[in-house]
């Protein structure tokens, strides 16, 4: 999330304030990083090394197809160092510190970043700075392209609105975020196509998790066309694959929706939770199969996801008011 001026790349950044072109304008303004040739003919990657007078380490910026820019860095400083960054009006990004500590000079406040924090910044906040102490420092950052940030703002995700804030996730969520970030940091610099796909997948999963951190504070309108379409897609999947195992996580991923949003909006739309809706759907199909003579009770139970026929019979009676043997 830190940006530095790079004299050699300033011309590239002058025509594009977003993506790698935008970042190139800031690198090395304070001689903290020195650009090195990327590990191969990859126009979507810029790699830097930590200036030897301060210590050793590296920083890499990679732009992926959606316009996201992924930053990774790991360095060991021999002394404290400081460098500055600027924000453009429609910028939106977040970052996590994985080792060490860093004092961030945010607008009208200072914050000492720790490993459990997620720092989110969006909009034109002017010039800021960061001060890192000596020792190992590592972390990741993800910058969103303006169209994606705008879409998320329109859908009610408050933390992508203008301003800077530090989010403190629960212990379980923090562990999951940290695990994903560590996996991203560990991917090789000269990665294969599979490594590049893995980095993209990790970035998208991190965005989804961070987007869910303030769900209770900012819930989008269920009548938004995107959400209506996503809930409708989830219902269609359940009807088409009623005999398949489903989880909220898997269903939410398939329709491109936050799990919490899906659960609440699904209930608003159908009057039932996802599990109850699917259970009733399975029982309706089971009754039709038994009534038509296409399945025995035991076969219908297996299709409905019940290994124990007696459990199936109890669930069947709760839905239909009779036992399957009475059909």
Would you kindly provide a brief summary of this structure?
This protein is of the alpha+beta class. The protein has helices spanning 10-14, 19-24, 146-154, 171-186, 193-211, 225-240, 248-255, 259-270, 274-291, 297-303, 309-320, and strands at 33-36, 45-50, 55-63, 69-77, 81-86, 92-99, 102-106, 109-113, 118-122, 127-132, 135-143, 163-167.
Task: Describe what you observe in this structure.
With 327 residues, the chain is of the alpha+beta class. The chain has three domains: 7-211, Jelly Rolls (Sandwich); 225-271; 276-326, Orthogonal Bundle (Arc Repressor Mutant, subunit A). The chain contains eleven helices and twelve strands. It has helices at 10-14, 19-24, 146-154, 171-186, 193-211, 225-240, 248-255, 259-270, 274-291, 297-303, 309-320, and strands at 33-36, 45-50, 55-63, 69-77, 81-86, 92-99, 102-106, 109-113, 118-122, 127-132, 135-143, 163-167. The strands form two sheets. The protein has an eight-stranded antiparallel sheet with strand order 1-2-3-4-11-6-9-12. A four-stranded antiparallel sheet has the order 5-10-7-8, with no helix packed on it. Strand 3 (55-63) and strand 4 form a beta hairpin. Helix 4 packs antiparallel against helix 5 (193-211), helix 6 packs across helix 7 and helix 9 runs antiparallel to helix 10 (297-303). The longest helix is centred in the middle third of the chain and has 19 residues, at 193-211. It starts with 9 loop residues before the first helix and ends in a 7-residue tail after the last helix.
């Amino acid at each position: 999330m830190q940006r530095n001026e790079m004299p050699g790349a300033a011309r590239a950044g002058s025509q594009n304030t977003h993506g790698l072109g935008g970042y190139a304008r800031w690198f090395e303004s304070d001689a903290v990083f020195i650009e090195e040739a990327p590990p191969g003919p990859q126009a979507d990657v810029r790699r830097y090394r930590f200036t030897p007078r301060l210590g050793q380490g590296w920083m890499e910026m990679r732009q992926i197809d959606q316009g996201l820019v992924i930053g990774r860095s790991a360095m060991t400083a021999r002394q404290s160092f400081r460098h500055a960054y600027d924000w453009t009006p429609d910028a939106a990004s977040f970052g996590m510190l994985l080792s060490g500590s860093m004092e961030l000079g945010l607008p009208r406040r200072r914050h000492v970043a720790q490993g459990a924090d997620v720092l989110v910044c969006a909009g034109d906040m002017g010039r800021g700075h960061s001060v890192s102490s000596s020792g190992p420092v590592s972390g990741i950052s993800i910058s969103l392209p303006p169209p994606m940030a705008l879409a998320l703002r329109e859908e009610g995700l408050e933390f992508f609105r203008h301003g800077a804030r530090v989010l403190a996730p629960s212990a379980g969520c923090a562990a999951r975020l940290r695990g994903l970030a560590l996996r991203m940091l560990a991917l090789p610099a000269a990665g294969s196509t599979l490594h590049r796909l893995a980095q993209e997948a990790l970035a998208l999963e991190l965005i989804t998790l961070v987007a869910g951190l303030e769900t209770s504070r900012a819930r989008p309108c269920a009548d938004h066309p995107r959400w209506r379409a996503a809930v409708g897609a989830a219902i269609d999947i359940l009807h088409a694959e009623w005999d398949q195992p489903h989880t909220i996580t898997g269903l939410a991923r398939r329709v491109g929706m936050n799990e919490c949003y899906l659960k609440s909006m699904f209930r608003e739309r159908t009057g039932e939770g996802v599990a109850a809706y699917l259970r009733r759907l399975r029982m309706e199909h089971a009754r039709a199969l038994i009534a038509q003579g296409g399945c025995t009770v035991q076969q219908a139970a297996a299709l409905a996801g019940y290994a124990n026929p007696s459990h199936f019979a109890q669930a069947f009676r709760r839905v239909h008011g009779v036992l399957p043997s009475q059909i």
